[in-house]
């Protein structure tokens, strides 16, 4: 029997701590992909996961990354969820010549030669979302977010989009990452009466906010909707059926995405885990990270990061989201944005999809305008700048 070379890879997700549910889904997706890779006898290698749980603590991320690379020979790190954790590990990644595979939506304004960005950035999530909600619900949003980079920057861009439409952000409020004390937010929403609420909350904070908001809206049939760019099946899972329903999200993947690639993917996962296993956005994104890495390793005949980068940025890859290509300069994925509304099961029904994948514009160098009458999907058309991109 042929001996297959083993390649260690680091899997770095917080499966305990303030956003543990996201971390558990991310880890499950990565391990599902590794199991498929290792079961494929046609591949001349197998992957050995080095699993670390930083527990959502800032000081553990760079330490675990450094140890995985130096002590265990990992050249690739599949991991991090929050932007502060990504920024904390990148120096160690860059210093040691490794490659970070980042699969979560983020606020943009970053590009590293040592990272592959497979999560959506603002022109692939926030801009399409606001293209939809501003003309339909109004331009007086209430913004709430976790008190770190994602919340701050997404709020800033949302404010500029709102003001460019002639509107006004009624409030911007931030809570500590993982905090579940949210009653004061509901009180202010009652007072301000916004047209919609943009949630940039993460993990347990998001779940607590949705639960409290549902209690408030039950006797208010005209309650404004909650919308978000990082809202997924995971945050809704532990809520009551009523609390799960009616929220609008933008993302490149939802469990109910009805394309051949996703149907085939879900069938394989159902065969492995059972038909009741719902595929979350976090699960799919990390699965995709590992499978793209494995395909690139096969093509390059090595796991050397420089060689992997050359392959990854030179071709497209089949994924459950559809074909995905990585830009050779920014290392960001071109992704197809979808808009969806949640139902009582905690799943999302997609009601709008971009006609094709949208190239990432992480620094918002190009500007997009909201659809005008007769434009159709013209939020993808480029027009003069209306965003302040100087930081």
UniProtKB/TrEMBL annotation:
Cleavable signal peptide: none
InterPro entries according to UniProt: Leu_Ile_Val-bd, Peripla_BP_I
Entries under SUPFAM superfamilies matching the protein: Periplasmic binding protein-like I (SSF53822)
Chain intervals for the UniProt region annotation (Disordered): 370-391
Pfam families: Peripla_BP_5 (PF13433)
Protein name per Swiss-Prot or TrEMBL: Amidase
Organism: Rhizobium wuzhouense
Phylogenetic placement of the source organism: Bacteria, Pseudomonadati, Pseudomonadota, Alphaproteobacteria, Hyphomicrobiales
């Amino acid at each position: 029997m042929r001996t297959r070379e083993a390649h260690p890879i680091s899997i770095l997700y917080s499966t305990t701590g303030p956003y543990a549910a996201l971390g558990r889904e991310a880890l499950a997706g990565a391990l599902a992909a590794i199991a498929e890779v290792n079961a494929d006898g046609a591949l001349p290698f197998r992957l050995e996961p080095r699993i670390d749980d930083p527990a959502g603590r800032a000081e553990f991320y760079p330490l675990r990354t450094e140890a995985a690379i130096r002590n265990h020979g990992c050249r690739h790190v599949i991991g991090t969820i929050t932007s502060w954790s990504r920024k904390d590990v990148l120096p160690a990644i860059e210093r040691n010549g490794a490659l970070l595979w980042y699969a979560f939506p983020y606020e943009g304004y970053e590009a590293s030669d040592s990272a592959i960005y497979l999560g959506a950035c603002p022109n692939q999530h926030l801009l399409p979302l606001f293209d939809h909600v501003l003309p339909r619900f109004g331009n007086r949003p209430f913004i709430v977010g976790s008190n770190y980079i994602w919340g701050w920057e997404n709020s800033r861009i949302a404010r500029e989009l709102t003001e460019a439409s002639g509107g006004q952000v009624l409030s911007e409020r931030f809570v500590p990452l993982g905090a579940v004390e949210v009653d004061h937010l509901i009180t202010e929403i009652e007072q301000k009466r916004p047209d919609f609420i943009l949630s940039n909350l993460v993990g347990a904070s998001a779940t607590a906010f949705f639960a409290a908001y549902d209690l408030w809206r039950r006797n208010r049939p005209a309650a404004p909707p909650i919308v978000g760019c990082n809202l997924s099946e995971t945050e809704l899972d532990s809520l009551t059926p009523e609390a799960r329903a009616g929220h609008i999200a933008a993302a490149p993947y939802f469990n109910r995405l009805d394309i051949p690639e996703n149907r085939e993917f879900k069938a394989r996962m159902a065969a492995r885990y059972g038909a009741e296993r719902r595929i979350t956005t976090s699960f799919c994104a990390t699965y995709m990270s590992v499978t793209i890495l494995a395909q690139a390793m096969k093509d390059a005949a090595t796991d050397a990061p420089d060689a992997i980068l050359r392959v990854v940025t030179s071709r497209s890859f089949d994924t459950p989201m559809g074909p995905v290509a990585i830009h050779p300069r920014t290392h960001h994925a071109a992704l197809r944005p979808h808009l969806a509304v949640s139902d009582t099961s905690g799943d999302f029904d997609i009601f709008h999809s971009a006609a094709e994948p949208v190239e990432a514009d992480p620094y918002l160098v190009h500007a997009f305008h909201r659809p005008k009458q007769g434009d159709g999907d013209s939020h993808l058309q480029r027009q003069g700048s209306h965003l302040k991109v100087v930081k």
